[in-house]
Amino acid sequence: MKTAMILTTLLTSGLTASNPLMANPATTATADTTCYAQVLVPGVFQAAEEKVVTFEGSPLYQTTPVQLGYGERKIKVADAYVEYEIIPAVFDEVTETVEIERERTEVETFPATYRTETKRVKTKEASVQWNPACAPVVSDDASNIPPACLLETPAEYQEVTRELIATPARTVKRVIPGKTQTVTRKVLVEPAKVVRKEIPAVYASIPLGRVEQAAKLVTTPQPEQSQQVPVLRKLQAERFIKMPVLCETEADPALISRLQQRLQQLGYDTGKASGAIDTTTRTALTHFQQDNRLASGAITLETLRKLGLP
Predict the structure, then answer these.
(1) Mean of pLDDT over the chain
(2) Which residue from 53, 94, 151, 303 lies 20 to 30 Å from 170 (Cα-Cα)?
(3) Angstrom distance (rounded) from CA 247 to CA 199
């Protein structure tokens, strides 16, 4: 058959196993019967992960307050003196201010506050696929391809919830002033002169507060938390190239029937093996090409090789 001869010529042409997409038309024996069409080579994607911060790190402050201890301090409020019965002693009063509680510093902490924010992460970029309902475009210029023959797949996104710091943690120092007490005492000015009588000194016990342990500030770091989001990164965009394809107007119905049967065996619905290229057959062929990362838009030589035809 004439079509079988064309396919045999294509299979024995200058295509190499290392680069099956680049054919040399000069090595094709029947160039006058070979059809060339613009086909869509699928893009190349690579699975990767993107790190998204879901919780920003912040220091956590903890304080131990000042510990006070209380004791007693003896203060002399009257000196010892000698008293005479005839001429009594003469005294003067002295007023003193005594510190009973020292000044101290206390630290008050306020934790950080957070706000919730949602970040939109692109997990897959937009791509273009061939519309299986379109016939092959026999043209040297890719700009002649009808827009309806290209199906755009929109990009995919994922919403990631993050917690961000609204107000940072902080500390406030507060100074507590010391306390004092006024004490009045008698001071001997003139002793008695006739009858000598000794009067002992007088002491008073005054409570005294002191710092036994100073305030402590402990800082605990809260580490940053993140989430790995799976994404698909496009390494190479879809592109159009010119390739030798099966001339559908001269195609052997028996070959088309075997093509339909082979696609049916692989699980692609082509309907009946009628030997004619219809919309159902184009759809099944396009799905097979997309699943196997082959150029789509026509019955290419690499597609026939992948199917084991002719």
Answers:
(1) 80
(2) 53
(3) 137
